[in-house]
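Reply to dn_fold:

You asked what the input looked like. This is it:
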Amino acid sequence: MTKNLENFLGMPSDSEELAKHSKKQRIESYQNRSNVITWLGVGLAGGVALTGGTLYSNLMPHLPKYLTALQITLLIVDAVFFGVARVKFDRARRELDKAIKDWNKLRASHHYGWPTKAETYYTLGLTIGLLWILLLLSVTWLSVTM
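and this is what came back:
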């Protein structure tokens, strides 16, 4: 029965093998989060090009310069948070991968949970990114109504 369940779910039935399997899934989750952060970084680069570019300043010449400076500052701070989060997720992935290779070390250790600091930096990055989008929309609305 357990062998059929293992084949059906694609998961091992032995508890040690199940633990290794879940650790490997967590490694994939770390890698997926790192990939998401990479694409958010690409979006930030586009935001810097949009905000700091001449097209933006030509479309909205009557806006105060401090709004553009504020937007670029938010994007740079956002990039720092995403960069730190990516490094922390990659480090957690490497440590867990290394621990899986030495299974005895992994069984004796319980500190291989989700990297909360990396998640905090990721959440801060998303929050600041949302603030930048709101600022961009408000500046655009202000420019249209003037």
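Confidence is low (pLDDT under 50) at residues 1-15.
Hope that clears it up.
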